[in-house]
């Protein structure tokens, strides 16, 4: 059958033996199809000869001339020098590796063509190890009608071989079936799949090289679109399969508990919170499992939204679980939820990795027999030993700490009980909308795009660490006014031991410099009871200054704290800096954040500090972060490989994303039989997203 053609192993192509196959495998090429989708990095124009007299350093050009001299130059490093002239000027070819045959080949009087990069040389321009041939040669690999593609390659694999192999592969390319012809109907005029592949591998001489190389040519768009649609459909299928298998419990809004809950809050919900609560309630009321991501900047008040969802589950007789990425944050949630929910008669349980022995047993028992209605904890919650009586809702806080895979694992966990629990995921890292639509195609997204009233934006400054004494004075002044401050120590090392030691030293020094202040210390090496005691004391304002490692990055909430000092801020990424800064500016007082840095700063570090000074808007920070780092790293998925695209670039191709969704809808409705092949081509046989 024709379809199978490009699925043949590359060894079926002319001249591909085991050695070559092995090298190709290093580039991820094992089938003929892989060659087709191995796209050029850049192109060279070998169609027009440039007179030697007009060469400029840095250009890749074709020249033709007569060899005037060819000799081995003496010296520490033997090299073959060959002077070529064409009447407009002369050029030296330099070869460091050469055989006698080369010297014979370039004998005086021979007319040759060379292609290479022009460099400045002594007295005249040079080309080092150019590709060359005799002007009258009939050389197939060299001969190229249009632009010459340069491919990503690997040691021992010549461009010439790659070019020849791709050409052979293109003979099969017509059997590749692309997206059906529904693009025109969507207002998109893009060339077909086959057309695009052959154009990208063999563009004509007058093709716009810049567009081809920067990915904005319609043929590139075509491929990017196919790839994005394939990824999108993968996530949608995954979602559909999860939702079909098992039904979720219908959880109507908490009529009885909601009123007393809201009336005990010291504030009213913002409009954005109320809107998101309504979205969540609508999801929960059906038997289709909710899969909703709530995005909201730090301090936008996501916790209350979660609490209302939880009340719905509790009132309907189901259990809810809240999972946080760190002990500290889980403890804080436990405190918050206990303060809100226990007065309403809700039974709580607590599970963390540090809990052991009898108390752990007791908590597990309460979870298993259903006495515990709300369970808070860290990822310890998802160990095999934990089983729930009637789990109806899973709340995951600070999603960016968990990968796509963990999220999917949680879903599995919930299904053990025979129902699919609803899932509410809260992220404090606002993800740019376009990115969210693709990376989280299996989730619905709600955005809390409003901060509670009365907050003043945090003022951010960057100061060199040599100005530490001034910074210490700032802490003194702020605390003298009855405010509190954080002092965060960072270390490059991942080691918690070193981090802790650095923080201990800093705390001692600060306590000495600021004897009138009550200084506390939290770090990851402390027992959770100890940490909790310190945090609680800080919250009660029994401490003025809290020295900490980055453990306090997420979620910690002390409205009276108005000054955040971050030492060695240059070591942290933008999202971490933004999270830390989000610890202040939570009350009505004007807050500031001091980023202390140790110079000299790298370019990206400079950029990051500048972004922090310029904006406090989490979405803007995220957008700039994306610009600086690229989507893979941004989502923390680079290592897992879940979001690696071959052609598409989420930022560059953002404009295609709305179309991706519409095409996805129509494909599923009108051409369901085409979906499989598309997904298999781009995402692979194993649905990578589903592997956990
Ligand atoms: P985050 O979205 O970062 O998790 P939190 O839920 O911790 O934010 O809320 C931050 C602070 O704002 C808390 O002190 C919380 O009590 C308060 N808060 C939440 N919603 C409102 C509101 N509508 N009005 C005033 N304060 C609010
Ligand atoms: Mg939070």
TrEMBL record:
Keywords: ATP-binding, DNA damage, DNA recombination, DNA repair, DNA-binding, Helicase, Hydrolase, Isomerase, Nucleotide-binding. Pfam families: DEAD, Helicase_C, RecG_dom3_C, RecG_wedge. It catalyses: Couples ATP hydrolysis with the unwinding of duplex DNA by translocating in the 3'-5' direction; ATP + H2O = ADP + phosphate + H(+). One of its GO terms (molecular function) is ATP binding. Residues 283-448 form the Helicase ATP-binding domain. Residues 481-627 form the Helicase C-terminal domain. One of its GO terms (biological process) is DNA repair. It comes from the Bacteria. Its EC number is 5.6.2.4. InterPro entries: ATP-dep_DNA_helicase_RecG, DEAD/DEAH_box_helicase_dom, Helicase_ATP-bd, Helicase_C-like, NA-bd_OB-fold, P-loop_NTPase, RecG/Mfd, RecG_dom3_C. Plays a critical role in recombination and DNA repair. Helps process Holliday junction intermediates to mature products by catalyzing branch migration. Has replication fork regression activity, unwinds stalled or blocked replication forks to make a HJ that can be resolved. Has a DNA unwinding activity characteristic of a DNA helicase with 3'-5' polarity. Belongs to the helicase family. RecG subfamily. NCBIfam families: PRK10917.1-1, PRK10917.1-3, PRK10917.1-4, PRK10917.2-2, recG. PANTHER family: ATP-DEPENDENT DNA HELICASE HOMOLOG RECG, CHLOROPLASTIC. This is ATP-dependent DNA helicase RecG. It comes from Alkalilimnicola ehrlichii.
């Amino acid at each position: 059958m024709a379809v199978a053609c490009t699925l043949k192993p590359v060894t079926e192509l002319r001249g591909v033996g085991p050695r070559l196959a092995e090298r190709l495998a290093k580039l991820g090429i094992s089938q003929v199809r892989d060659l087709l989708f191995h796209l050029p990095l850049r192109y060279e124009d070998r169609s027009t000869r440039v007179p030697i007299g007009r060469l400029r350093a840095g250009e890749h050009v074709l020249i033709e001339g007569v060899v005037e001299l060819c000799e081995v130059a003496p010296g520490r490093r033997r090299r073959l020098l060959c002077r070529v002239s064409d009447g407009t000027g002369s050029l030296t070819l330099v070869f460091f590796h050469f055989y006698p045959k080369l010297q014979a080949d370039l004998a005086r009087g021979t007319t040759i063509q060379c292609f290479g990069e022009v460099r400045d040389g002594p007295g005249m321009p040079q080309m080092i190890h150019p590709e060359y041939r005799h002007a009258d040669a009939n050389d197939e690999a060299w001969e190229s009608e249009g632009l010459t593609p340069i491919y990503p390659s690997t040691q021992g694999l010549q461009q010439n071989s790659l070019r020849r192999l791709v050409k052979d592969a293109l003979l099969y390319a017509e059997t590749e079936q692309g997206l059906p012809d529904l693009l025109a109907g969507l207002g998109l005029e893009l060339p077909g799949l086959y057309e695009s592949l052959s154009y990208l591998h063999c563009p004509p001489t007058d093709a716009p090289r810049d567009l081809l190389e920067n990915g904005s040519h319609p043929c590139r768009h075509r491929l990017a679109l196919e790839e994005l649609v394939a990824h999108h459909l993968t996530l949608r299928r995954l979602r559909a399969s999860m939702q079909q298998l098992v039904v979720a419990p219908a959880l109507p809004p908490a009529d009885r508990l909601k009123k007393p809950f809201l009336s005990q809050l010291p504030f009213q919900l913002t409009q954005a919170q109320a809107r998101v609560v309504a979205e969540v309630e609508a999801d929960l009321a059906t038997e289709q499992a909710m899969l909703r991501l709530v995005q909201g900047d730090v301090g936008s008040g996501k916790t209350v939204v979660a609490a209302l969802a939880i009340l719905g589950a509790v009132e309907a007789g189901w259990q809810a679980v809240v999972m946080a990425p760190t002990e500290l944050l889980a403890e804080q949630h436990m405190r918050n939820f206990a303060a809100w929910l226990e007065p309403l008669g809700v039974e709580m349980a607590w599970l963390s990795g540090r809990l052991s022995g009898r108390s752990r047993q007791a908590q597990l028992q309460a979870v298993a027999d259903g006495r515990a209605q709300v369970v808070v904890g860290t990822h310890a919650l998802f160990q095999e030993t934990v089983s729930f009586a009637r789990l109806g809702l899973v709340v995951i806080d600070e999603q960016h700490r968990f990968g796509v895979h963990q999220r999917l694992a949680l879903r599995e966990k919930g299904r053990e009980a025979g129902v699919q629990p609803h899932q509410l995921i809260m992220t404090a890292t606002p993800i740019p909308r376009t990115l969210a639509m693709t990376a989280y195609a299996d989730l619905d997204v709600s955005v809390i795009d409003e901060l509670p009233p009365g907050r003043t934006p945090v003022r951010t400054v960057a100061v060199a660490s040599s100005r530490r004494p001034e910074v210490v004075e700032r802490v003194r002044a702020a605390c003298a006014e009855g405010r509190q401050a954080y002092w965060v120590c960072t270390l490059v090392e991942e080691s918690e031991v070193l981090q802790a030691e650095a923080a201990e030293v800093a705390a001692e020094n600060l306590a000495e410099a600021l004897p009138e202040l009550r200084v506390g210390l939290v770090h990851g090496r402390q027992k959770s009871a100890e940490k909790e005691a310190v945090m609680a004391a800080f919250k009660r304002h029994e401490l003025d200054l809290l020295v900490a490692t980055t453990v306090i990055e997420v979620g910690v909430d002390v409205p009276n704290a108005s000054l955040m000092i971050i030492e060695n801020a240059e070591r942290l990424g933008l999202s971490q800096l933004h999270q830390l800064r989000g610890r202040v500016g939570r009350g009505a007082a004007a807050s500031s954040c001091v980023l202390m840095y140790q110079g000299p700063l790298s370019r990206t570090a400079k950029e990051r500090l500048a972004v922090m000074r310029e904006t406090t808007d989490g979405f803007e920070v995220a957008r700039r972060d994306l610009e600086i780092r690229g989507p893979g790293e941004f989502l923390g998925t680079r290592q897992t490989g879940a979001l690696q695209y071959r052609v598409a670039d989420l930022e560059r191709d953002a404009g295609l994303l709305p179309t991706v969704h519409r095409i996805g809808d129509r494909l599923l409705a009108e051409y369901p039989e085409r979906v499989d092949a598309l997904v298999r081509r781009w995402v692979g046989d194993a649905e990578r997203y589903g592997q956990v």
